[in-house]
Amino acid sequence: MDPLDPTQLERLLTVEMPYGKYQGRLIADLPGPYLNWFAREGFPSGDLGRLLALMQTIDHNGLRELLRPLRARVRRT
After folding, report:
1. Are 28 and 52 contacting, i.e. CB atoms less than 8 angstroms apart?
2. How far apart are the C-alpha atoms of 61 and 77, rounded to whole Å?
3. In whole angstroms, how far apart are CA 47 and each of 15, 52, 69, 70, 73?
């Protein structure tokens, strides 16, 4: 998975957390402390883990604003 692939970034805005406290919330909308918990404790395997790790990296580096143009585009489709 190429983390800079726009398709992966768009998936952050369409895939929902499937379980836990934030079940049903978009991966892009998960709070930083929750993402950091996964970073400390271990991300789940597979696609979900890769998306959570990508979102944690974006959040940790203060780059959530970069998702704004994609968010607007995803809402239109």
Report:
1. no
2. 28
3. 10, 9, 23, 20, 23
**For the packed helices 32-41 and 46-60, what is the interaxial angle rounded to 10 degrees?**
120
Residue written as tokens 């580096």? 61
As a whole number of angstroms, the distance between CA 4 and CA 1 comes to: 9
Domain positions in the chain are 6-76
Beta-bridged to residue 26, according to DSSP, are 16
- pTM of this structure: 0.89
28, with CB counted inside 10 A (0-12, 13-18, 19+), is buried
Residue 42 CA, distance from chain mean position: 15
Mean pLDDT by groups of 10 residues along the chain of 77 residues = 76 96 97 98 96 97 92 71
What H or E segment, with its residue span, contains residue 13?
none
